[in-house]
Amino acid sequence: MSDAVSLPRSAAALPETDAPLLPLRVRGLTLGFGDETVIDGLDLDLGPSGCTMVMGPNGSGKSLLLKLLHGLIRPSGGHIDWGGQAGDVTRRQALVFQAPVLLRRSVAANLDFVLRARGKDRRRRVDLLEHVGLSHKAAQPARLLSGGEAQRLALARALATDPEVLFLDEPTASLDPASVLAIEHIVSEARARGVRIVFVTHDVGQARRMADDVVFLHRGRVAEHAPAGDFFPVPQCQAARDYLDGRIVV
Amino acid sequence: MFKHFIGASVAALFLAGGAQAQDQSIIVQSTTSTANSGLYDHLLPVFQDKTGIQVNVVAVGTGQAIKNAQNCDGDVLLVHAKPAEEKFVASGYGTERTDLMYNDFVIVGPAGDPAGVGGMKDVQEALSKIAGEKALFASRGDDSGTHKKERALWADTGVDPTGGSGEWYRETGSGMGATLNAGIGMGAYVMTDRATWISFGNKQDYEILVEGDEDLFNQYGVIPVNPEKCPSVNIEAAQTFSDWLLSEEGQQTIGAYKVDGQQLFFPNAPQD
Amino acid sequence: MQDLASATSLALQLVLSGDADLVEIVGLSLRVSLSATALACAIGLPLGALVAISRFPGRGAVLIVMNALMGLPPVVVGLLVYLHLSRSGPLGFLGLLYTPTAMIIAQTILITPIVAALSRQVLEDLHAEYAEQFRSLCLSRWQSVQALLWDARYSLLTVGLAGFGRAVAEVGAVIIVGGNIDHLTRVMTTAIALETSKGDLALALALGIVLLVIALGVNALVQGLRMTAARQAYV
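Structure tokens for the assembled complex are given below, as produced in the milestone run.
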């Protein structure tokens, strides 16, 4: 994986003339399905740069939070304020799902599709593929890629849209160590270019490796939000302590 | 890719459209009995060689043929139901009706002849007998020339066969050949024109049981469609075709058509 | 049964001798039905895709109508097209009645609902898989439609095949608007109807066998394509 020349530039260098999306300010965010409340009056502030790792037990609302922030689902209540932007914020962000949804075409065609759909320079495909180490697979059917390769292609696709914010929803769950490393490397490079990373993970080791700050979710709320250096040595909330110690958190 | 696709589709449409009739062509609305007998395959090449006019034959029941011609969807009408044809001309749809040729109707039935009508010379009597025995009878039931003729014969007998409709009287609602297939399939008597019968390929054990009655005479007429009612008509070519059919040459060609050595149509155009 | 044996040998004979009339009839059948299928796909696929990805009031009713139209009787379609294309009808001035074009129009009307309804089902299933990803990528409706149509291409091939099968096998519509005119609008099915009405069952059956073989060939081709596609996980 080499450093690419024409890859996601810093947010300031992006062609969009809109004001920056960050900081993010979330207040009283609520999401319910019928009687069940899954996000329950959540408050969150995210600073302008870095990598935020989102952790929490299953069912704490991590994935739903990402989708709410990305604008894929509508909240039942509360406010999400991306730097005061009223318009379409989804277009300025990208989300990599846990199970990548790849089109039924070649690896190259998957990227071509997004580049064309989003009005980007299609010649960038070569650099993107090289960046995620898939140049040699360009002509292969995307859906025959291994799990790690598929996720790298999904990452390349996300980066092709020049996102200012990149959401990742457990992208390395059930991948082999080499693939995990490759993906963390690509994400770190994006972060270094100024892309704001919001990364959901179950893997405490991964959180330690990647985090600038940690958001710990519990029962649909932010139980703790602290810089990595503060969080990992001494979590403030009981649920986070139990979670890091490997105890079941209900 | 979709633009290409639509483009190709439209091209295909016009490609196919390009194959439509050339300028000098006419449509003849005619009956299944004449077409199925193969008469047109015998007549039309001779006519086309002579005049260069291509004749396209639409073969339907007489009722539908007249209806189509009234909708201006033909240049010449060639059918066999004199009263309906005269009405067609009287209403202004045709220029003139002329007797063209005749053949005759026959009643065919299974060799077993359940109603015992074999060899009868009086068709009304034979029909009465079939009705009396409630022997199966397959009718066209499609308002065709043959059907009109059959109904007229029943009217002569005073029997209303539709009282037995669905029982012994079976109205197929289809063409002559289909009715023969159906009738033979169920062992029913069928009234058919002789030409269709001679050239019919699925006779099985059926044979002609009633023939020779004057009332079974089957007259065909030819009528060019009136351009005053239907401006789209190619009246010149239509008239050329009609005139040729009625000419000595046309009449001889009709008379010369034989299947299995039997003459199918007898030309009887008025000669001056 | 004797008919069946003589029909089979007659069919072989016709095909092997390259009988000129047979070639003409088969050629016209294919041209008419393939054109109709292409047109029906050009109309029906985008329509099916739009309905598949859209949610609007009355959508349920639209689905019922689409599905019901799949059962349009060919004769009714033929009659409707006849009434429009007849010289005395609103489109009579085009002079299309009793031409292959009229037959293409009738078959297109007959099978467009089939293509639209079946593709709607195929694309809705695929869209269930893609919808969230598409929203994340901010695709427009038209971009989504294009992507779905292309990604479902091998399933849609089967949909097209269903339409083609219906078109090439129907007789009711083409016999009314085409008139079964020899060397002009005679196709396989109308020729079969004609030979049947002449009582020439062997020839009719022979033509039927040829039609069946063509249908088998087209289906085998599509099946082969699908299997190749399946090996690449493109289905």
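The first strand of chain A starts at residue 24 and ends at 33. The beta strands of chain A are 24-33, 36-46, 51-55, 77-82, 93-96, 165-169, 196-200, 213-218, 221-227. Further analysis is deferred to the final report.
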